Amino acid sequence: MTLVLGAIADDFTGATDLANNLVRAGMRCVQTIGVPTTDLALDDVDAVVIALKSRSVPATQAVSDALAALAWLQGHDVRQVFFKYCSTFDSTDAGNIGPVADALLGQLGATQTVMVPAFPINGRTVYQGHLFVGDRLLNESGMQHHPLNPMMDADLVRVLGRQTPHQVSLAAHATLARGAAHTREHLKQLSADGVRHVICDTVEESNLAVLAEAVIDYPLITGGSGLGQALPEQYRRKGWLSEVSDPGRLAPASGSALVLSGSCSRATLGQVAHFLEQYPGIALDPLKLAEGPSHFETALTFAREHLAHGGPVLVYASADPERVKAAQATLGGAHAGELVEQALGQLAQILVAEGVGQLVVAGGETSGAVVSALAIHQLRIGDQIDPGVPWTQAPLEGRDAPLSLALKSGNFGGEDFFSRAFEVLKTLTKEQQTA
User: For the chain, what is the domain count?
Assistant: First the structure.
């Protein structure tokens, strides 16, 4: 079977974010955790999003993982490939965005791609090549404090130029404002001049539609999930995609409700505080986790007690930057993160086995740890909770009903996201039962 779109995402929540936009725009979508090692049932699937955990690994490993994913997609005759990274362009001077894009272009035999990280509906815009988060430049948005990939420069042409030996240029807003045909000609001229990577201004949603039309015949496109919402219409115009009713339909949800949060973003900190005003929660401290198993056992007992009543209950390692720095200073940044991820993954494994059927996870690294701990290999993408965050479902061995799972990027979601996620799921389940 020919796939319309095959996406390679550099983290789990980002993959889900893109898949969500594809479903909302009318594509039936499956997300895999890592490169599939077994055959997937693709008869009713238009797009496959392969979720890697490659955002913060060495560039050589990120390239190797991405090429393995591409090989699988090419084996399924994919029409177009999408390299998906964060809307805040999370990376370092060594990569991984530039090296991975270069490797994919080389394998596809293509000479140029676009870089479209923006997602205006979520406050991520690019103007004159500079990335904004809301009304702040990227390096003033809180991303300068990111524990793994601190973003100290908002000029993406300059950022990407440090990651690739190839030419990087800009498709400015004034170009996009003149429409898809003009933008396509601008890109062709840049390609003739030897420009391999083009950062694309994106100030409003209409810019995404222009870009999708301009690059519909590119073998490789790259960016955040915003571009994903504009692509399906272009596929329909090409005759590659048929109209489908209810592409995000899932099975009814069941089981108790749990939130696991490892993200330390400003958005997630606000969501944790809001949730704790209404529901129970317990904090995980990496310094205490390092002392021995008692702190973990305390959190597990707390969660079990409140899940006995159906939940929702929150277990969180989210903390303000000063507390994170203090833990990292004592334990080392990598070890502090590993302790938290291991604990949250183990909690998920135990509590899902004991009856949790509705699980919200906040943070890309945390989502990766949880998905790995649960040995999840495939997610069916359902309806949206907030822009960029859908409910998904995963079949689990030995369990009749699938696990309902929401993987939230740290920066995404409104203040009431955690509590409202379960309200949305409850509504969806009622609609499914009466359909």
Answer: 2
